[in-house]
Amino acid sequence: MKKLPLSFYLRADVEQIAKELLGKVLVTNWGGAFTSGRIVETEAYAGEIDNASHASRGRTPRTEVIFGTGGTAYVYLCYGIHQMFNIVTNISGIPHAILIRGVEPMEGTGIMLQRTGKKKVDETLSRGPGNVGKAFGFHTSQCGFSLVGEELYIADDGFTIKPSMIGTSPRIGVDYAGDHADWHFRYFLKGNKYVSGKIR
DNA sequence: TCTATGATCCCCT
DNA sequence: GGGGATCATAGAT
């Protein structure tokens, strides 16, 4: 498996990066607890002009990492329960981020079951951003972590997808964002059962 | 200090 | 298909 280089994350086109992340392998290795899975669903958040992004409300201590340089993790606690894992992209000063919404488990499923408290591996294990965060052991304390380190990275294992396998839709849970709620910034692998929401 | 709220999920009817 | 869980953050007092 080839680890994606820092340059992958520093490009300007978030939509393109969000699309290319489909089929790649997400790896976390916190203290030797190795887990990996294939990314099947992503959402792009295009910075200050995007009303759906946290960054649109300005630069704060929490959103600081999104404004930082690409290739780092932004982990956010939602509804007091769910740890959401985001990938920061673009160069410093431009707040682009990609939310990982769905992952198909590969290695370390035993560890994931332990973390989620589930009995068996099924599609609920890592479908939806909240579950991905839980299964892969993400925590808000990991905000700002590098994506090219040993504990956290994204790899290419040679798996390729055809453009016809990629579906797009408006993003989920951001209806409040006015016109931007209609942007097709959500990307997923068609038919994959680890894709959340109704449109697969 | 205090309070509202959210890029969600799960269990209950 | 509806509501409760549960807490860091941000903006108001």
Blueprint (SSEs and pairs):
Elements (H helix, E strand, L loop, with lengths): L1 E2 L2 H4 L4 H8 L3 E6 L2 E14 L17 H4 L4 E7 L3 E8 L6 E10 L3 H8 L12 H7 L16 E5 L9 E4 L16 E4 L11
Antiparallel strand pairs: 1-7, 2-3, 2-7, 3-6, 3-9, 4-5, 5-6, 8-9
This protein binds a DNA duplex (13 and 13 nucleotides) through strand 4, strand 5 and helix 5.
Report what the structure shows.
With 200 residues, the chain is of the alpha+beta class. It has helices at residues 6-9, 14-21, 64-67, 109-116, 129-135, and strands at 2-3, 25-30, 33-46, 72-78, 82-89, 96-105, 152-156, 166-169, 186-189. Strands 1, 2, 3, 4, 5, 6, 7, 8 and 9 form a nine-stranded antiparallel sheet that branches. It is globular and about 40 Å long. The protein starts with a strand and ends in an 11-residue tail after the last strand. The structure holds a DNA duplex (13 and 13 nucleotides).
Keywords:
DNA-binding; 16% helix; globular; alpha+beta
Give a quick precis of the structure.
With 200 residues, this protein is α+β, with helices and mostly antiparallel strands. It has helices at residues 6-9, 14-21, 64-67, 109-116, 129-135; strands at residues 2-3, 25-30, 33-46, 72-78, 82-89, 96-105, 152-156, 166-169, 186-189.
Helical content band: 10-25%
- Poorly predicted regions: none
- H-E order: EHHEEHEEEHHEEE
- Work out the radius of gyration: 15 Å
Give the overall pLDDT as a whole number. Answer: 92
The number of distinct β-strands equals 9
Largest sheet: 9 strands, antiparallel
Q: So what's the oligomer here?
A: single chain
**Strand percentage:** 25-35%
DSSP helix count? 5
* Alpha-carbon distance between the two ends: 28 Å
Give the helix/strand class: alpha+beta
- Write down the overall geometry: globular
